[in-house]
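Protein folding task:
====================
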Amino acid sequence: MRSKYLVKELLSEITELLVPHIPRAPREAQLLLMAHLDKDELWLITHQSTEVEDTQDLFQWVKRRVKNEPFEYITNRVSFYSEEFFIKEGALIPRPETELLIDEVFKTYEDKNTNITFVEVGIGSGIISIILARHYVNARFIAVDISQDALDIAKVNIEKFGLSSRIELRLGSLLEPISEKVDYLVSNPPYIENGVSLESNLDYEPQNALFGGEVGDEIIKELLGEVLKQKIKFFTCEMGYDQQDKIRLYLENKNIHSLEFYKDYSSFDRGFTLKVEN
């Protein structure tokens, strides 16, 4: 490793290091360099002969990526719903499919000026509550997570978007920390069956945000039980692709108004919105 590189030389060298390990090595080399320099793609294209110093951290990033550590944890950046958020180990990396959950909430509750109380269970990095709070400008938000690490990460993002006075963070399990009346519950809970073999990069992510129990839908059913018990009017939740029948069966003969499922970008079942009878 030299002390100085031209941009084009640096791109070439880190691409070569990534090629045996990463499918999209040239693109990831570009993205890593852009993040390291805090520059966009146009700058990278037009400054191929610009000299770059202090590359030690960049090569450390490359070593971490070679070990299949997620790109987002390395750069501490993740894009979601056309915004950039802070992320690091301790919170699940947001997936594009979770944007569909937010779209479902928008479709379900169209009054942007509502002053109802939203609760998110399992806030993770804070992305869902933040996007919703920016849309429902008069609503109250309470966000719960069992992990203090996740709450700390969410706090960084909430402060970044100036929402500290509108999104209250609470440590605890499911709805245990909530004594207020809840109007709309939102959650992307763990829903993978215990013991399922996952891709190696998922080893870096918090396992309690991935695995939902022996069957996988236990936490979803706990939340459904609380929604019915507390008569929470709306509940939008992400779920596994194979859990629709189990959720329908659980809610059979229950006092509900409607249950609608939505699909992800690959046309797999991905979540649902439950409306409860008053």
